[in-house]
Amino acid sequence: MDVNNALLSRGCPAVISTSPRPPPKTLRRVPVQERSAERLTRILDACADVLDEVGYEGLSTRAVATRAGVPIGSVYRFFGNKRAMADALAHRNLDAYGECVAARMAGVRRGDWRGAVDAAFDEYLAMKRTVPGFGLVDFGIPSAPDAMPDANSDVAERVAGLLAAHLDRPLDKKLRRTVLVGVEAVDAVLQLAFRAHPSGDPDLIDETRALLHSYFAGSLD
């Protein structure tokens, strides 16, 4: 299943098509024409597939070019090395996550913080289970932390903004801190859950959800 199909299968918008949005620092050349944007999408899709097969250490620009069916020069036109390529994939994942969480929250009653928190949590679970390459490169590169520093902070900022809008409350320091702690807790416990089972140990997932509800209640009730 490719990335768009993984998103569309659960009602998310197809945010990853011909206009991926990695930050300029990871990209040697920003695609302008649709054909060039489509090629960049194919390269990132291939990067995700190769990651699933051989891991980050085995990832190479040549393997990605072969999988994408493009000349190696096309990869280097966009990326200087595999780290920049994986970093762009991580940023694409973050964009997709933000769009999908927003779509899920739109179906939650305004002011219902538990439903909104569940939307963010459930979308993260869904991406871990269905999006190619996400298990190794979700929103950052574990073996190359300097490539996308503070990935959890970036995730927390996205979620905090969506939560503030849903609850009609200011995006202040307290909410940002609360969401960041929640994101860090989820990241730690779900790593354990997915080490225990390929789809995530259901008991540990339930414990993680309960932990989130209990912690957020102190700030949002």
TrEMBL record:
This protein's UniProt keywords: DNA-binding, Transcription, Transcription regulation
Alphabetical list of InterPro entries matching this protein: Homeodomain-like_sf (IPR009057), HTH-type_TetR-like_transc_reg (IPR050109), HTH_TetR (IPR001647), TetR_C_22 (IPR041674)
Entry annotated with the keyword Protein transport: no
Spans traversing the lipid bilayer: none
Domain HTH tetR-type, residue spans: 37-97
Feature: DNA-binding region: 60-79
Official protein name in the record: TetR family transcriptional regulator
Organism: Streptomyces rectiviolaceus
